[in-house]
Amino acid sequence: MNPFVQLWNDTVKLWTTYAGLYLNGVWTTIYLAVICTAIGCLIGLLCGILNTIPYGRNDNFLKRAFLGTVRGLIRVYVEVFRGTPMILQAVVFYYGLPYFSNYTLRFENALLCAFFVVSINTGAYMAESVRGGIISIDPGQTEGAKAIGMTHWQTMVSVILPQTLRNILPQIGNNLIINLKDTSVLSIISVSEFFNVHKSIAGTTYLYFPSAAIEMIGYLTMTVVASILLRMLEKKMDGADSYELTQADALSLSAGTYTLNKKPEDIHNRNLEGGGKK
Amino acid sequence: MSEPILQINHLSKSFGAHVVLRDIDFTVNPGDVISIIGASGSGKSTLLRCINLLETPTNGEILYHGKNVAGKGVNAPEYRSHVGMVFQSFNLFNNMTVLENCMVGQMKVLKKSKEEARANAMKYLEKVGMAPYINAKPRQISGGQKQRVAIARALAMEPEVLLFDEPTSALDPEMVGEVLTVMQQLANEGMTMLVVTHEMAFARDVSDRVVFMADGVICEEGSSEDIFTNPRKQQTRDFLARFRKG
Q1: What is the ipTM of this complex?
Q2: Contacts of A159 in chain B (CB under 8 A)
Q3: pLDDT tens digit string along B188-213?
Q4: Of the candidates A17, B40, B98, B133, which lies 20 to 30 Å from A188 by C-alpha distance?
């Protein structure tokens, strides 16, 4: 038989029998990826805010020591979780915690552990993206906010982070897509996400390749849809290209180069309508 | 005589070994319109930025109503909300519309309600002639318009004194007029203003006091008439001569 026809027949057979299991797996993968990317972003933003709290020689020793320690801890966190494979992080937290705590400390179920591991892993990457994003914002934005009396927190939340978020949205998209695919490693702690479904179905039916074909199509569909949605979100965040005038602008129409009148009484007669024309 | 708003005593600032400001003394009284002139690199902008604590002074005092704000343990955000600043590069918030730019400080810092902030913002946008553009984003309006919004944003905080850091230097010549007209109107209304500027006509005709800076010190200070018609120092004369062509 033609191998393509064979593949088609096997795939259809698998799908008609196990569609429910596959779709459950897809659903688990999607909500793991989406929620963990969101939590990871929050972790990243928080690290970004903490990392950029300014301190100078006018601040007391305690504040400087505290902020220095915070920055050091964030650095260690980023290096450790960015520098080790997620598959091992899952093993360490799922099996390592009970091992070291004599079974008093452990995750109730694998899914909870999965949420934890993927979130802090994403957070480590996002912390660096956010840092880059904050650096890329013109320092004038911070000065403008400071000049009207905003605190560091207010400046970050109202002015800097919204702009940072827009700039790093492509990077957030990258993380979402990476998470959609990389949650597959969580099968190591037997979370029943999409890839784990494949392992168990292939194990019972011995139809390894047809099941893998379904997986390929499934993952590709998820990532393509995610990427389209992200593009739409980017467009939406940019806002309208045009704006509406609410009335005519009197000043800019009459504006010209500025020639001040010599006589002071003329100066005091000048007003907004008077513009630069003589 | 009324109590001065700002009194600067022996202020100095250095970046590493580079001394930018040396032993600056001067006083800002309510209603003063003071122009700070001088060559590039003479420390004018640094002085203004020190006054707003955007730079930390190395030495000296800045007394705001008699209270030193240049020392340790000062609530800088609180102080800055009384001292408005307009920048050379506008520094409007790019993620907000014109109206939101003028409202955010009132709501977050002064804790005003949204309605109150909006009404107040409209009042000042009206004053600078930018009311028609409330829905525009900063990237959609011209430089002169941006600067007028920046002035409205500072005014909306109802500051006691307004600092202008070369407000027209980044503008095309045809846009300088609209900004200076607004500033002149503010001066006429009695706003206390401290203006770092290269617009000699403005310094001469609008301000009542002129400070000429050179090499990080105040070289000469006096009424605008004295400085422009009868400067005492040779350095001042040389500087002003460069603007006397034509």
Answers
A1: 0.89
A2: 93, 95, 104
A3: 999 999 999 998 988 998 899 999 99
A4: A17
